[in-house]
């Protein structure tokens, strides 16, 4: 059974979180570390943008400042996510790993099986989202809004058709990064306040549709499991789904210095955050 690293970073700044995911890709590419499964949280609560999102078009920056939330651009695609009461995961693994399909969609399925096993272990009747109709596939190509949880994509987690976790993936120089959010609770009004809409009527329509397409775990599980219980379920889920053993690991002082340096130079810089 193959051994991967397991890292629980705890609550970190937005820039640190994105820098750590990037450095894990670098270290794995260089052969310094094996593949990694990581869990982390956000301090402060943070609005993260997909790599290609346009700030001026999509985001109400005054509302972001007013709400005192962090603001960062991810290295992965997709739409904006408000990270607050959630568990965020990332998986870093080589494209050449024998368990990884070449296609992006199928790689989503293989990696996300760990989440699915974790949800089911906690008693949820979760399943993969598989867009089947032409209308559903068209909605993925042309999203209705800038909000990530507005609709599930291929192989994301749903319960009774409603999205409970969102993921994004990038491949850089032979290494896959897939990361995503498992939403425990969320403040819907705060989330929608931070996006631009053509009119109040459009916002209300989008918000109503959002409620029908996404739900936090708190609405499905009573009582809501503690974070540590959830992380343990997902840890076991990834082990079973990928047929691996996860070995706890922490970066050393030099590795942490590299992460902090990248966070300051790239992910805290306006040149990165406002590039589109």
TrEMBL record:
Alphabetical list of SUPFAM superfamilies matching this protein: Class II aaRS and biotin synthetases
Q: Which UniProt keywords apply?
A: Transferase
- Asked if the Swiss-Prot or TrEMBL record annotates the protein with the keyword Transferase, the reply is yes
Example of a GO MF term: transferase activity
Locate the BPL/LPL catalytic domain: which residues? 31-246
Concerning CDD domains, the annotation shows: LplA
BP-aspect Gene Ontology terms: protein lipoylation
InterPro entries for this protein:
aa-tRNA-synth_II/BPL/LPL (IPR045864), BPL_LPL_catalytic (IPR004143), Octanoyltrans_LipM/LipL (IPR050664)
Name by which UniProt lists this protein: Octanoyltransferase
